[in-house]
From TrEMBL:
Belongs to the glutaredoxin family. This is Glutaredoxin. The keyword Electron transport applies. It holds the Pfam family Glutaredoxin. SUPFAM superfamilies: Thioredoxin-like. The keyword Zinc does not apply. Has a glutathione-disulfide oxidoreductase activity in the presence of NADPH and glutathione reductase. Reduces low molecular weight disulfides and proteins. It comes from Rhizorhabdus histidinilytica. InterPro entries: GLR_AS, Glutaredoxin, Glutaredoxin_subgr, GRX_bact, Thioredoxin-like_sf. GO terms for biological process: cell redox homeostasis; cellular response to oxidative stress. It comes from the Bacteria. Residues 22-82 form the Glutaredoxin domain. PANTHER family: GLUTAREDOXIN 2, GLUTAREDOXIN-1-RELATED. Keywords: Cytoplasm, Disulfide bond, Electron transport, Redox-active center, Transport.
Amino acid sequence: MTFAPADNISGWNKEMDRMPKVEIYTKAFCPYCSRAKALLETKGIDFEEYDISMGGPKRAEMIERAQGGSTVPQIFIDDRHIGGCDDMFALDRQGKLDPLLAA
């Protein structure tokens, strides 16, 4: 087993610190949720997924964070609400999504 030199690890940690925090509220079998997740995956972006199929506190949290938005998906990049699937694809078409994901 080999280990990376300490300076490489610290560089990797700095790179990880620059990655945006992406959160997506979803429901099982939602085609818009699947499309949104697929776009993020093709861009190599890790994301935190909250399945709200059964309701509960995460659904209430989503509605509060999305200022009343109750449809899924609801997507947040670094705590900034960007909307749903169509909104994220529109940002991508306009060339505005990649800069948000590179923050």
